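Box 3.1 — From sequence to structure: 3-hydroxyacyl-CoA dehydrogenase
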Amino acid sequence: MKGSTVLEVGADGVGVITIINPPLNLLTYDVLLSLKESIQEAVEMDDVKALVIIGANGKFSAGFDVTAFGGSQERKDKKELGFMSVQFVTDTLEAARKPLVAAIDGPAFGGGLEIALACHARIATSNTQLGLPELQYGIIPGLGGTQRLPRLVGLPKALEMMLMSKRVSGKVAQSLCLVDAIAPADGLLSAARCWALDILECRKPWIVSLYKTDKLEPLAEARLILKLARIKMRKQAPNLTHPLVCIDVVEEGIVSGPRSALWKEAEALHELRLSYTCRSLVHFFFAKNETSKIPGISDTGLLPRKLSKIAVVGGGLMGSGIATVFILSNYRVILKEVNKDYLLAGIGRVKANLQSRVNKGKMTQEKLKTSLSLLKGVLDYDSFTDVDLVIEAVVEDVSLKQQIFTDLEKYCPQHSILASNTSTIDLDLIGKATKSHDRIIGAHFFSPAHVMPFLEIVRTRRTSLQVIVDLLDVGKKIKKTSIVVGNCTGFAVSRLFFPYTQTPMLLVEHGADLYRIDQAITNFGMPMGPFRMVDLVGFGVANATGIQFLENFPDRTYKSNLISVMKEDKREGESTCKGFYMYDDKHNASPDPDIVKFVEKARTMSHVMVDKKLRNLSDGDIVEMIFFPVVNEACRILAEGVVVKASDLDIASVMSMGFPSYRGGILFWANSLGSRYICSKLEDWSKQYGKIFKPCAYLTECASKGTSL
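Predicted structure (token representation):
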């Protein structure tokens, strides 16, 4: 039965308990109860000498069903809370009077691995994956993993695996002594049976992981390791507490003993399951899984066509990054440029991208050569006669893009998909002069394209379903999380975040400190503040996108003169080592004392007076004034049907712009504050500072009804 375990006894006297909960044999309360009953039954059977736990269909267990996390059900009974970890895993499984071996193939994550850790030995296949990823969901391991893992692999490696949710292969796990032996998949069960009988006959050691101490460092050294881990976590994730809780629980076991620490682990897990961080990360997990479910597309039964030859027009930073993405996924790629120098530079960027992966140990020099052999540089369209997909990746110039699409229609075969990497320009405008509207689509990558894991697929009203299905399949093959959005200026992502750069300009011209704004936003959890981000993308791109929004949404844009004033001083951002910040030769940013004069000049040109209230904003006020207009734009995007699901905007905000995943995404975070609160704040600001803050009809309606966004 699904969601249970089955006990079978062989002629050799080994009882094999199989976890059955397809497809990944996830753990649930019922599965664990069934496992407990199977172990108790086997221990009492006279014809059972030893036990093996294995997962059905070559998958041990991918851990607890994530729906069990982020719950609101409070269990105050500490005995009930610790039942799984103490009374079952420790006092039933690990304390079994008969040797118990885990036979691990496929995934062994979270609670699945913790079950294996409590067994008296572990046999795995070389390609199995093992890990404790609970911190990705805002909790800690809760079936004794905080205690057993350090005792098997040592404190430093255990902390790395838990705090960084790092997975290891079976082969690596053996080198760490996390598993005892490696066996081929077809011989795994047989090897585990033999090992269990060898333990019974004292030919192999009977190891109780919870009380193993030889891998633990001396107390003083252990405390130093834990102290350094805390410092690292506070620096890497200053807004998160659960990594520190995990370290505390590990330390409890070292100082006070593992039994005591198991109860502390159980109590900590209970508290963390009810936290906002856990709810946010669980929401993000499910929202990410839902991106592939698109009504009217994924449910049509339409199969993707095989695309094997890709062309990229433009070898700049974006074009070369996109070319890199495809050759890394074994696609043949043509890279087109307008002259030899530009082409050599583009190919050079691709080589540099690959070499960077080699330097970081992510690929071999041999793989680099193989990948580069898939790339062909050209100066004309003669090689485009058999391409399956073309991605235009030139500068944001409407007339240039229109000319390119006219050329593509002329040279490319009828079946080929014509995609643009534009971040803001309406696709109908780009393809205006063509007759190929059914195969024009947006393929908006994010810089650097070979690193960022997100792809925004933009469909027009005339884009065929087949083309959308094809591009979704390509996104999966190049390992991107994709969302499908409607066509408009800025689409979903650029449009969502255009207030993120415009509102700070307003605040600064009205007296707020530029560097305080960036600091408050990074303290909130963004990878960088809005001014540092503008420096990174460059003033040219910022101006081009700003013009698009000014022309299309004049009622809610703020026309700042600040960038124009700075461009007069030959500042273009990080690329010129001077923008809102100054940059050294290693691209380290530092505040520029000269920025004050540019702000004053822009303020004078805009006829703006300094507002004392804005000069003295708290960090919380800054975050709200920057992000509430973003929430407002998200509401417009939802109301207009640019995205199908609100959760797609949460995924987009996190994976494209770096909104902290532990806040769940832009709309999940907004819902935690409430539509009424956000709407009232925007209303107040719009009266003082203009229409950029005016709440839209959708937000106003949600606020009046007190409903979720």
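Summary of the box: The two ends are 40 Å apart (CA to CA).
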